[in-house]
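hey so u asked for the seq, here:
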Amino acid sequence: AVRALVGGRDYAQSQFNRAVAARRRPGSAFKPFVYLGALERGMTPDTVRSDSPVSIAGWRPENYTRDYRGDVSLTTALASSLNTVAVRLGQEVGPRTVVRTAQRLGIGSALAANPSIALGTSEVNLLELTGAYAPFANGGTGIVPHVITRIRTTSGRVLFERRPMNNGQVVEPRYVAMMNAMMNQTTVSGTARTVRLPGWIVAGKTGTSQEFRDSWFVGYTGRFVAGVWLGNDDGTPTRRLTGGGLPVDVWNRVMAEAHRGQSIVDLPGNWRSYDAPGRILPGDALDQPMTMSRVEPGGQRRPPRTPEAEDRSAVVRPQPGTGFFDRLFR
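ran it, structure tokens below
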């Protein structure tokens, strides 16, 4: 069930519900469907792929930083949001597989099965994207987002009660465990490392579309999934806003309140490198075990900052008489 939904910053000014009616490019927030498709084809979080320039029929996608790291694990590539690796994986599994994977998890918008789908170039709405992350949080069950569960009269008579409805098991538990381990790293050492939810294991993915037109963060715990989109209604660029910036800050504030008083529920799965199947794929590296990291109360265990995709937004400082939305949007 949807616990809260905000469609804009001021309902009096605009009744347009951006959470359900606006379709925008998710950018890298779409990459989990690419990586899930790769895992289901036999890869693991430790599988190594090349982060180097790539060209497909004249299209040359680049990393945000235009830097390249050479051979990296899939975990590092997803956490750092390396575009070249995502595109290579999309080509390996096939754009149609990427589309089918996203649809299986709950994306209902039309998706173009082309090479750029790996970078989230097809438009989606926030509610469906957030709902499509839910199987990672609940152990693999597809969900149907809904707002109304029951309607009762003042006397208690039930006028309507929603029947339990889901899409069944859409992701196998072992792949849920792998995806959670990978997306947890995004919040520990990657583009969403400013996530703050003490005591909880958090996973998620940031997204930024071309020219900073859209910024996203969809993150989740064992209790809740929350998605944030920020952008201009007319599609014009923002002031270098990225998914790892203000969207994560908004997510932190909302989820801190949502989890207040809740007993901790960990994410499903506890994948480790040495849990990989006996047949090691070429290029796999099983150097160190990888487990999910919890945000520690009173402080976070964070590695030193390194240049990463989607985390180079300009610092926005308060100005007299303006709110943070006014400082970012025209």
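The chain has one domain: 27-328. The chain has eight helices and nine strands.
lmk if thats what u needed
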